Amino acid sequence: MTKVLQNRVKELRKQANFTQQELSDQLGVKRETVSNWETGKNHISLANIAKLSQLFQVPIEELLKREDESDSFL
User: Fold this and answer.
1) N or C terminus of the chain: which is more exposed, having fewer CB within 10 Å?
2) Contact 52, 9 (CB under 8 A)
3) Do residues 63 and 53 touch, judged by C-beta distance below 8 A?
4) HEC secondary structure over the chain
5) pLDDT band at residue 73, thresholds of 50, 70 and 90?
C-alpha cells in the first residue's frame, strides 16, 4: 500500500471525527485492521477502498492518487 493511501485514510477518518474503532465498525473490520492500514502493515482490499470512498464521499481516484499528481485526473 502506498504511503499516500495510508495517510489519506487516517486524514479522512480524523476529518470525520471517527476513532479507529468507529471506522472499523462502519466497515465491518477489526480495529486492528484499520490501525494496520494506517501504519502500512496491511493492504486495503479493493472492496474496502470502495467502502471508504462511499463512507467519506470521495472518489476512489482521490484515495489512490499519488502525492505528485495534480488534482486533474485527465
Assistant:
1) C
2) yes
3) yes
4) CCHHHHHHHHHHHHHCCCCHHHHHHHHCCCHHHHHHHHHCCCCCCHHHHHHHHHHHCCCHHHHHCCCCCCCCCC
5) very low
